[in-house]
Design goal:
By secondary structure, the protein is mostly helical. It has helices at 12-32, 39-42, 53-57, and strands at 45-46, 51-52. The two termini are 24 Å apart.
Amino acid sequence: SGGDVTTAAYDPIFFSHHGMIDRLWSIWQVKFGNGGTPRDLLDTVLVPFNKTFRDVLDVQQQPLLEGEDAD
């Protein structure tokens, strides 16, 4: 169910919703860039994900999570 983070992504509504968020973010980036994110913030590590701010800005970079399939 949507309340369980280990299975929420398997919910078609959750998956569609987050797919749309990624789509909107990609459109925004094409139109406006990364929104003027300060350079010193770009290399900040996002705990507990071990990804930097720069890593998650690029929706084309796949996979974001270890073990995810890029296809």
